[in-house]
Amino acid sequence: DAVVATDQARLAAERAAEEWNAVGAGPQIILTLASDEVAAVADYDGHNVVYFQRGAWSGIDGATAQTQRAGDASNGVLLEADVAVNAGEIHFTTDDEPAAFDLQSTLTHELGHALGLRDDYENEDATMYFTAHAGDASRRTLTAHDADALQALYDGAELQAGAAGCSSTGSQGWWMALALLAAAPLRRSADRPRAA
Known about the structure:
alpha/beta, about 20% strand, globular
């Protein structure tokens, strides 16, 4: 089984966060390795996590990854976001392996959801486009459309401190614990939809 090493997964996640942080809109994403107290599960528990789910996938069937957000519907405040990577069914790579899905592209897309963006159904080159293809690393880098969407989402927004770590200024950040618990074994190489 081909796997993505922990240091490669961490680097892919850091680079994905850097893409969104460079836009300068919304909270900055700050990744740290998860402590033992942080569960690698999508649950409203006060922790933003990125984790690799091995074994049976509990997300949307066939999705490369899925982001679960919790918010306050009365005021639109995003309280928490958890990103699950489908490491049980999908083979990921950090190299240019044509039969595998690019981990950094997947994480860049999912961190866009963590920031509140939805899938893009019109701009096929956008990182937030709704589907991914094996061997495509082009979505590691944001397009102008992705950056504009984030700026529009946070235009005039006042960021407030909260339990999940969303800061009150753009210079501080939204803490996300990176639970690097597993790598992705080879399973399928067909095109996969991404899930929000």
